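Reopening: Exosome complex exonuclease RRP44 still failing for me.
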Amino acid sequence: MQTLREFTRKTKRGNVLRIVREHYLRDDIGCGSDLCQYCFQNEVYQLTTRHQINSTLFKHPHYIVLDTNVVLDQIDVLEEDVLHNVIVLSTVLNEVKHKSSSIYKRFNEIIHDRSRNFYVFVNEHHKDTYADREPNESANDRNDRAIRLATKWYDTHLINSQSSKSFERSGQSTTRVILLTDDAGNRSKAESEDILVASAAEYVKSLEDFPLLVDKLSQKSFENEKQARPQYPPHLSMKELLEGLRQKKYLQGSFQASRENYLEGNVNVENYEKGILLQGRESLNRAVDGDIVAVELLPETEWSAPSEIVLEEKNVYADDVPSEERAQEEQQVKKAALAAAKTDERTPTGRIVGIVRRKWRQYCGILQPSLIEDTNRHIFVPADRKIPRIRIETRQAAKLLNQRIIVTIDTWPRNSRYPHGHFVRSLGPLGDMATENEVILLEHDVPHCKFSEEVLSFLPQMPWTITPEDYAKRVDLRDLYICSVDPPGCTDIDDALHCRDLPNGNLEVGVHIADVSHFIRPGNALDKEAAARGTTVYLVGKRIDMVPELLSSNLCSLVGGVERFAFSCIWEVDQEANVLNKRFHKSVIKSKRAMTYEEAQVMIDDSNEQGEIAKSLRNLNRLAKILKKRRMDNGALVLASPEIRFQVDSETHEPLEVEAKQMRDTNSMVEEFMLLANITVAQHIAAEFSECAVLRRHPRPPPTNFDPLVKAARYQGFEVDIESGLSLSHSLDKCVKVDNPYFNTMIRILTTRCMMQAVYFISGSLQKEEFFHYGLAASIYTHFTSPIRRYSDIMVHRLLAASIGADSTYAQLLERKSNEELCNNLNYRHKMAQYAGRASVALNTHLFFRGKEEDEEGYVLFVRKNALQILIPKYGLEGTLYLKSDKDGKDGLERIKSEIVFTFNEEDHTQRCGNVVFHSFDPVTVRLSLDSRNVQHEKLVFRLVKPYIKGFSVELVKMEVEGETPTCPPTKKSKKDKKKK
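Support: Ran it again with your exact input. Result attached.
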């Protein structure tokens, strides 16, 4: 049966188009129930008499129909294996897909789990359930009517099916169909049409067999709160926001909450280098980190500067009216901001007027013990300091108090200090290594679930062998003395090298990269999963693979003595490392040996080693030094960062030893040839595909980024020239102190902090001069050398293969827009992987120092307004030595510290206490210990040992120091202060 659907659409030019589409209706779509005697069922029954749910609200057997908002709001309830026999209307499924792709994906997984008995009914194409749009009816109202029509039809259809004499004789109660909706208007109309209806909360609370399911209900509001006094300004409507953005009255950007100060934030807005500063609760106006917001710029006379103070929210439950304490905190921030504004350049400042798009996710954290006995209302404290506390209702508080749990935000009313949310699930005991690793992965949005059966189905069947056809299509390089050099324990070996003499006196150098793209074909489930993950994530003692282990550690890993597919980049170079020509091959290689950096270094240094591999490594090492010097002469930067290596117990997975990573010549050797391969491939694919080549750029930092570096170096007697990369590189080379061999490394660490983030992009989206990679001083660059670990490299392999005729192109490969979206995801995944890795190092560092106290030599890396940033070379650790402390401290040290005054000098970034002055790079001795008082945010505590400051250094508490004269006298109390006391 055919019907016509008409609708109008307005074009960009303002013309109105009348569109008519044919819509076909059928009478052979089955209802999916095993109770039905009429429908032709062309598949196994999904709605069955099994799995009946006992409800105090509906005591007869029933099926459930969900409306769209129930799916969107209560997805955490639906994911629990409780609800069965659920009818999913195609109207609802399409609306969910349109409104939230993430929830649509989760809902689809439930639907495809056949044990859950979720049945998709295509009501939009059934002749009895299709609802045509009526005149002046909104799309939302039409969809609500379609849901009610389908529910009514289902109920009548099943009642008729069960009215036969045979069914009546069975004595079974009649199965009915219930509509779950949280829309008051839709519910009212359903009741008037004699449809059985309930809200999601009513229905879940009626399931007495599953009392804990109530905890997972989305909490839109709490009782007794509607009359509470508003604490925030109202948000503008979406219509007002869009109009204001169009007129440039408001600015749109991504909100970033401060990790150090919960009353400050920043909105990244295009054309504003430092973004828009937000200060105070009202200006933040219920934005959560990551939200896309509309911000109103304040008049320039009201602009401020970041306060640069550390401010953590205290444990406060009452939130109906602002307390005096909260007002004092607001005032503290304002005073600090005014002080900063006097010395620093004022920053554009604004206030949030509305939320364009929420970016809420699931948050990990702990329950805060309630001050009220026998209550279901609790405060959830997220692990991420940038996220506000969340109010939830749970009946499991006693069980969850020592657990890491997941909570999601549902809403944030004006009259509530905190957003409202609900409990999702427990992760495990607080402090457990597996639990804490799970928290790191979830908090950094790292996809880490097991690969699905669909993904694994695209892996090659084992045993896998190279066929004669494969050899025929590839260049055979198995006779070359190829070897790999990697960190110890590396199983995902994706690069190998060779170097050999040529008859003409030149050298042939080859970089051989695992040919992952041979096994991962475009567009299949394996490819989509790899693209979504973007990168392999490395935690301490744990690796989250981008591709299944069969590829990462087996078929694609270039292990020694085994034939493997590779993509080879081969150069002919002269003895001075000048590239004379190049070529690319899909090849078959057989690595002669897989070595660690240390093993390769030993072989190079041992003059008794005269084998082909030793000769190859020595030539590679010599050429690499020439290449590196050439890069440095062109302005490439040698930067540094403190890195730690842990020795982990194989059974408990806890750290046994921690040490700074050692760098050898062989590290640099491998790096140089990987850089050369990446640059060579970038030049080639950009020439072949000018609009869609996947490249990587490193933007030049703005001059203001270098201010801390320039000031710190100047005090030490060095001038750092930031005019160009070359001048900066030369300046860093000159920053050498004979009496402090670690000084140059610290200068380079400080320089690293001034850099911008390197990003992937598509060649057609930028001008060629913007391709520049500042850190490498390369005019063009890409990633080609790690396809096991990075999806960007797989994209580059496909472009390179297409350019040399080794593989065919496909539509998406040459489509700029889709590749730009892929690059955006890769940039995000790469950043999150870095953060996750650092969080894992911090976790293991805390575990290592648990129950220990160690005095270590270190250096001042940064001087802050209320703290010193200290670097410990022995461990590659960095931490904060606070110069001001809480006067409410419990021990004598805290009490004494409150008497000490440190004066911060804005001009030269120094801290003075009496005759002791702290500058960047000054040597210090600190005592390291772990503060476990905050079970969620354990932190490594740095306390000063040397230089000695009486009343501040730790020895004063440990023992009475005889004959010491105070280097920093206690402050004198004024008469005014005494009166206050």
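The chain is about 30% helix and 25% strand. If you still see a failure, please send the error message rather than a screenshot.
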